[in-house]
Amino acid sequence: MKIRHLVPCSLALAFLAAPGARAQAPAAAPAAPASGFRAEFLGQQAYGEKQILDLAEATPADKFGWRPGEGVRSISEVYMHIAGGNYLFLGFAGVKPPAGLDKEMEKNVTEKSKVIDELKKSFAHVRAGIAATSDADLDKPVKMFGHDTTVRGVLLSVVSHEFEHLGQSIAYARMNGIVPPWTAEQQKRLKESMEKKPADAPVKK
Q1: 150: part of which helix (H) or strand (E)?
Q2: d(CA 24, CA 43)
Q3: pLDDT tens for residues 37-74?
Q4: Alpha-carbon gap, residue 31 to 156, rounded angstroms
Q5: d(CA 47, CA 38)
């Protein structure tokens, strides 16, 4: 079943105030799982987090308000949509968002340093929520956007949503002449490798 991520961030966060959400991720979360689905999820989560944060750090502060056209999310709004989605999806799995969360963060948080700080908080919330969720909880049935799924399905939606908008952010960066840091690093290594190769090295036949 394909879940469509078309809920506006403001409406999505408003949902989190509903009584359906259960326990909030504790401040001191249990130790992260070392094996099984949750550990595999956290591996993908860590990879996505790093790329999102690295790209945000590489983006000049004066570009955070850039958008490709009228009515389309800006760079900062995409990042805040990712953060809001993290709280939203964990809410379906029974993990409450932090108290005092700005339900309009997508519009209100636009400064680079604050955007990155909110992203980091949302990623920490995801990790704490996963650690607080037991393996036995993964197959529990839940409703998400009116569809039947499980806690496991909710978690898959978390990471797929992050990667969906990472791709969008990469496209935005490229349109502004920003090379993703991991690509820049690969290009640097390739250049260094070529420079170390002797110009008169014999060609193998």
Answers
A1: strand 147-150
A2: 22
A3: 999 999 999 999 999 999 999 999 999 999 999 999 99
A4: 20
A5: 14
Compute the residue count for the chain: 205
| The listed CATH number (3.60.21.10, 1.20.120.80, 1.20.120.450, 3.20.20.70) that belongs to domain 9-183 | 1.20.120.450
Distance of CA 27 to the CA centre of its chain: 20
What SS3 state is found at 103? coil
Asked whether the whole model's pTM tops 0.85, one would answer no
Q: For the chain, first and last CA: distance in Å? A: 54
Distance CA 59, CA 83 (A): 17
Alpha-carbon Rg for the chain, nearest whole angstrom, is 20
170 contact partners, CB below 8 Å, separation of at least 6: 55, 180
Bridge partner residues of 141 (DSSP):
150
DSSP state of 58: H
